Amino acid sequence: MFPSFLPPGVAQLTEDTSIALAQQIQQEAITTPLLPNPILTTYVQQGEGDIPILLLNGFDSSLLEFRRLIPKLASHTEIWALDLLGFGFTERPEGVAFSPTDLKTHLHSFWQQMIQRPMIIAGASMGGATALDFALTYPEAVEKLVLLDSSGYAPSPKATKFIMPPFDRWLTNFLRSPRVRRWVSVQAYCDRSFVTPDAECCASLHLEDPSWHRALVSFTKSGGYNFLYDTIKDIPHPTLILWGEADKIMGVKDADKFDQTIANSQLTWIPNCGHVPHLEQSQLTADYILEFLSASERKESQTVGTPSSQDG
User: Fold this and answer.
1) What is the pLDDT of residues 47-91, one digit of tens each?
2) How far is CA 191 from CA 22, 214, 244, 273, in A?
3) Residue 2 included in any domain
4) Please, what is the angle between helix 212-221 and helix 167-176, to 10°?
5) Tens digits of residue pLDDT in 167-179
6) Is the pLDDT of residue 216 over 70?
7) How far is CA 33 from CA 90, 98, 131, 293, in A?
8) Predicted pLDDT of residue 95
9) What is the mean pLDDT of the chain?
10) Which among 126, 143, 147, 127 is positioned nearest to 135, based on CA atoms?
11) Can you tell me the distance from the alpha carbon of 70 to that of 222, in angstroms, rounded to the nearest whole number?
């Protein structure tokens, strides 16, 4: 059985990993400074471990994009996946701007109420920019960063803040078009055989939310993460950059920019892979993330086991 808060289209899922993850999605009322009432927030939590990993979805997506990655990580450690405010199946309440600041505030409230200890944040595409912004504002909440073909350098078009009716409706109708969404899916993969009916269902299921249009326009008018590129150099956390060698969405130049700008970073290229390594090369992506995690766990173990100068 699927959770009752998911849209009816969830019944069209056909692949085992998609069905299993959709069945495990939970909803929590998260209290935030944004509104007097809590925000119904959708997430998945699996596995156990000392250092949790939080997965953040990309633009106009949901946590279902991690359907192949989560099982491979959760068998080794504690995994969380969150639908960011304005995206996925998280509530889109009135009175919220759905700006990067609002996303960050909501994310911090979720962390305070649900995770409550330093974590590794792994953000895909726009989720990578969200992770970077969060880490700069709340460094104490972050152990390490993982950037999966991340945005963060390209400024948004200046005209986005002037999107008004009827152009806003035209924009979202364009993005809602099955033909456009299929074209984006084809561009996202190196191997087009991944563009299945199930994959297309996962990528569009959240569009059934009646507030999808309003939230997407609001986020776009905010300018998105066009302010971020000048601050990336200030990231203090160890950062793993995973990048598909054949990324047609972001290209490959930004991968080197991240690696050169973030002082404590390592860049790993994912072969035979486009913009979504967590879908197209999920096992290899999981292996690299778990290796990155194990370095943190070894360091923590050594710190705990090292006697202080006052010990005999």
Assistant:
1) 999 999 999 999 999 999 999 999 999 999 999 999 999 999 999
2) 24, 33, 12, 7
3) no
4) 110
5) 566 677 777 888 8
6) yes
7) 17, 13, 20, 32
8) 94
9) 91
10) 143
11) 31
CATH assignment of the domain containing 60: 3.40.50.1820
CA distances, 193 to each of 29, 62, 189, 247 (Å): 38, 21, 9, 16
90-115 confidence digits (pLDDT tens):
999 999 999 999 999 999 999 999 99
Q: Is 159 helix (H, G, I), strand (E, B) or coil?
A: helix
Q: Which amino acid is at 42?
A: T
List residues bridging with 54 in a β-sheet. Answer: 80, 121
Residue appearing with tokens 């971020």:
228
Q: In this predicted structure, what is the pLDDT of residue 87?
A: 98
Number of residues in the chain: 312
Identify the sign of the CA torsion 136, 157, 35, 115: negative
Domain span at residue 147 reads: 8-301
Residue that is written with structure tokens 């400024």 in the block: 155
Domain count, the chain: 1
